[in-house]
Amino acid sequence: MTTLKKRLRQRIEAAGPLSIAEFMEAALGDPVSGYYATRDPFGAEGDFTTAPEISQVFGELIGAWCGDVWDRMGRPERFILAELGPGRGTLMADLLRALRGLPEFGRAASIHLVETSPHLRGLQAQALAGYAPVWHERIDDLPDGPLIAIGNEFLDALPIRQFVRMGAVWLERRVGVSPEGDGPEGDGLAFTLTEGQPMQPRSAPSGAVFEECAAAADIASALGRRVARSGGAVLFIDYGYYPHGFGDTLQAVRRHRPTGVLDEPGEADLTAHVDFSAIAEAARAGGARVWGPAGQGEFLSRLGLGLRLEALLRRAASPSQKEDIASGCRRLIDPAEMGTLFKVLAIAGPALPEPAGFSGET
Fold first, then answer.
1. Are the C-beta atoms of 19 and 296 separated by less than 8 Å?
2. Spatial distance between the Cα atoms of 28 and 319, rounded to a whole number of angstroms
3. Angle between helical axes of 56-72 and 305-315 (0-180°, round to 10)
4. In whole angstroms, what is the distance from residue 275 CA to residue 220 CA?
5. Over 50: is that where the pLDDT of 185 sits?
6. pTM summary value
7. Residue 114: how many other CB atoms lie within 10 Å
8. Do 172 and 193 form a contact (C-beta atoms < 8 A)?
9. CA–CA separation, 273 and 162 (whole Å)
């Protein structure tokens, strides 16, 4: 049993079952034993691979999008360029490289990263050497001013609560101690149901699971207020669903394979699908306009992925390099891979024209 699991068991035994949100916060964010505090989870040697690690084209196209948004904003002389949960810094590095041909953008941008992991901050510093990024613990700590922000696979790691419809009532799914003690079923931890009520109860059949992510809604509302007040846009890319839906999407991944959510807290990544309807509603309530969501494949194709792929293939030195480039791009846009499950949503100030890559407001 891991040290973190022992502490969680002690906490449950002292105060009762944890909400899934509390469990996720500890498993991912514990400063000593939490998942993101202790490792580099990305790439073939880690637990999962994100779009910036699959192909440089992803970051380059997001860079082109940022440059276009800055132009539509009227090219402010100073603005905040932020990334939320920047991973290794690969996306921001590719983004900035793609915009070298627009030096005015680079001179106007002040680069800020919202990251809590000391380990990942070190990797980001290496990737962005020479750009002088500034790190923050919280989105609220970002300085005032016009904002362009990117959050790629950021929302899916925010803590959720789960509610289960049982007959005419909702019950909350929580994490307790298994009555069987340590063993194969959760190794001493088990899901349990207690009294609870979702913030927005919906009619649903008995047995339906409703997931609620208050943290994501709060962030979308705050960013909506921010761009409504100061101008700019925020781009979220993540896997999720639209419109609202029901279902248990909480999952754990270790070494690129599914594992039990309760098996080894702190040793596996925990995520849940993003409810893009909830994100859009919260951002609009903050005063912003919302564009999308569009499927990632559709969005990247509109930004010119095909043309960029052709250019890279012409410069490739060998057939194997060409295949690596082509397969990476296919993975980003193929409906059977990331093209449909992953969605893109923009939160923008009311004065900003429709951003590139979209075909209408939500």
1. no
2. 41
3. 130
4. 12
5. no
6. 0.94
7. 21
8. yes
9. 12
